[in-house]
Amino acid sequence: MERTIAAISTGTMNSGGISIVRMSGADAILIADKVFEAKNGKSLADAASHTVHYGLIKDDQKVIDEALVILMKAPNTYTRQDIVEINCHGGILVTRLVLETLLKHGAVLAEPGEFTKLAFLNGRIDLSQAEAVIDLINSGNKYALKASVGQLKGKLSTAVRGLRDDILDKIAYIEAALDDPEHYDLTDYVDYLWKNVENYVDNVEKLLATSDEGRIIKEGINTCILGKTNVGKSSLLNALAKEELAIVTDIAGTTRDAVKEQVMIDGIMLNLIDTAGIRETDDIVENIGINKAKDYARKAELVIHVLDGSKSISQEDLSIIESLKDKKVITIINKSDLDSKLDCQVLERELKDKYSLEAKVIRLSALTGQGLDELGAAIKDMFFKGHIQADEDIVIMNERHRSLLIETLESLKKVESGIREGFTEDFLTIDLMDAYEKLGLIIGQQVEDDLADRIFAKFCMGK
């Protein structure tokens, strides 16, 4: 029996101007008519679709709230079922009372993501678009938002469907030729197939090439601020975060444990860790912090190495530089508001020639904020080649999609290998079909119930 589900679709942590309680299902309009009294006296069942109605929400003639009710009739709705949305006043209590009244009159409480799950099951969106909905809700920056909107619009779906259709055509032709060789000729077909499979591989590799960028857009860059004591690491963290997160003093060794914070710079999210200053010390607790700092630097995707521009480079600075080979490094000459003893271009050349360190060197003042824009540009250039494609091309941000594309690529390369080794066409269709099925899992053309349940369980209530 089909459920008519209901849930609060707006945040309920604090009171606000309005709240929305949403219902979807065959009995949504019937239930709404039981609790809603329109000012014009007409029932919702007799109203046109996609209309707004003003009136009172009642329970046994007791007025709960005045509200605007939006009526949307199937199939032109998000779930392709009848949907009723009650826009009530935004108090936590009144919103819950409206929901409880709907449940009392026949609705059942929706599970997390159930509205979007219905949209998927009823063919309104495919699985990759459904996943884009939760990514859209959880977007932490404008690039993640743009990439999610592109996926929701069906950019990835279109690319995947195009690949699947073409692969299926090749499989179908081979199967037909094997069954009816008089009408379908396989002469030289392997050469034709080879060119097509090369094209499939190229397309999948292009999609996979965006996955590192996509992960960074979605999750941020794991970034470690490293340097000796009193170079301004904590001041830099505070400047990037635009608040006093770390204690700043002239006393060496003030920062003993890591301070973690997510900050946004030029639209890019950094998962920042400010670490203890590197120096020789007999302090046991400080040494623990220093060892942690070195460990964070080893694991970081980006190290921001901070130097005190008002002083010459010390042996401690050089020791840190030597530990950063093979890392992505941006070297900050801090305290640019003071007379500087370090030159950016000279230092950049020395780091490359003497220490084999390809570091971008930037002059910056954590105190005044001068140079922060240049830092953002350097990060964008280092990780995105100066330009983020999120609003133009498909960007793979979802780990499930990435894994399935890797498996698709492996299957296609088996086809290439089979062609080189002279396998017959019927053997080649095995790996072609595997690639076809893996692509289908991305958009939900072939999906098991438990996978769908796991995906939609990540959603918030009411969506």
Task: Walk me through the topology.
Layout: E1 5-8, E2 16-24, H1 28-35, E3 36-38, E4 51-59, E5 62-72, E6 83-90, H2 92-104, E7 108-109, H3 114-121, H4 127-137, H5 142-153, H6 155-179, H7 189-209, H8 211-219, E8 221-226, H9 233-241, E9 259-265, E10 268-274, H10 284-299, E11 302-308, H11 315-322, E12 329-334, H12 344-355, E13 359-363, H13 372-384, H14 399-420, H15 425-443, H16 449-456
Helix pairs in contact: 4-5, 6-15, 7-14, 14-15
Structural shape: flat
Largest sheet: 7 strands, mixed
Give the rounded overall mean pLDDT. 84
* CATH fold group of the largest domain: Rossmann fold
CATH class identity of the largest domain: Alpha Beta
- How far from one another are the termini? 22 Å
Radius of gyration: 29 Å
Total E-strand runs: 13
Structural class by secondary-structure content: alpha/beta
Counted by DSSP, the helix tally is 16
Helix content: 40-55%
Task: Give start-end ranges of low-pLDDT stretches.
Answer: 246-257
Q: What's the CATH architecture of the largest domain?
A: 3-Layer(aba) Sandwich
- Within CATH, the superfamily of the largest domain carries the name P-loop containing nucleotide triphosphate hydrolases
Give the helices and strands as they follow along the chain. EEHEEEEHEHHHHHHEHEEHEHEHEHHHH
**How much beta, percentage-wise?**
15-25%
Tally of individual domains: 3
Main β-sheet, spatial strand arrangement:
3-4-5-6-2-1-7
